[in-house]
Amino acid sequence: PFGIERVSNSEVGIGGAYGTWGASYDNASLKVLIEQRLGESLSDSDSMDLADLGFVNRHHIPNLTAEEHLELEVEVGSRLLVEAALANGWQPGEVQAVLIGMSGPVADDYVAQICRRAGIPDSTLKVSVHKACDSSVGGLNLALNPGLAAAGQTNIAEELYGKKVLVGGIEGLSRFARRTRDKSALQLFGN
Question: Could you give phi then psi for residue 18, rounded to 5 degrees?
């Protein structure tokens, strides 16, 4: 399952898209999934009340091959880029820069692949930001903060000023969480 929502604010002049992929587990069914993966019960002391953190659902995908993960996450990323462009009133071919944050890309050229599939021009500036949970905020900081560039380096914020730029983050964390036996990580991380 895959779902996307577009959002926009005409007063500010920005728009975007958010979404998720994989089977949706509410907090009760997530506990059952984790117990099945671990092969043991989750004690009350190990069970987290994710609703207190604002999480009512987590999304996980089944175990896939590396090729299947790549195909899935390229499809997800490209759909999000298209929807984000449309939420701004742009066609994908008009986008001039894409900054994507992620913890662990499924491929070294992930941003280039999702841009290509979304119909974003090859000439578009593509930046991949690797900073874990706040990587999309790191991308936004790069796009908006001209004071970050050192003397003699390209100033990304100045280069992007006035251009059609998409900034965001994507995390297929259920891909990583499958390999852990950490009960907290299994509860917290999804897509």
Answer: -140, 160
CA 167/CA 96 separation, integer angstroms:
11
- pTM summary value: 0.86
Distance separating alpha carbons of residues 53 and 103, to the nearest angstrom: 21
**DSSP 8-state assignment for residue 39:** T
Residues 164 and 144: their CA atoms lie apart, in Å, by 13
CA distances from 24 to 60, 62, 109, 142 (A): 7, 12, 28, 33
Give the tokens for residue 47.
């069970």
The answer to whether 163 touches 96, Cβ cutoff 8 Å, is yes
E strand or H helix that includes residue 80: helix 66-87
- Dig out the tokens for 88 from the structure: 């701004």
**Which two three-digit tokens encode residue 74?**
């390229």
CA atoms within 13 A on the CB side of 127: 26
Looking at the DSSP bridge assignments, the partners of residue 165 are: 97
Strand partners, 2: 21
Under the banding of pLDDT at 50, 70 and 90, the label for residue 185 is: confident
pLDDT at 176 exceeding the cut of 80: no
Q: Is 64 helix (H, G, I), strand (E, B) or coil?
A: coil
Largest CA distance in the chain: 57
Task: Give the three-class secondary structure for 19.
Answer: strand
Token digits for 48?
A: 């987290």
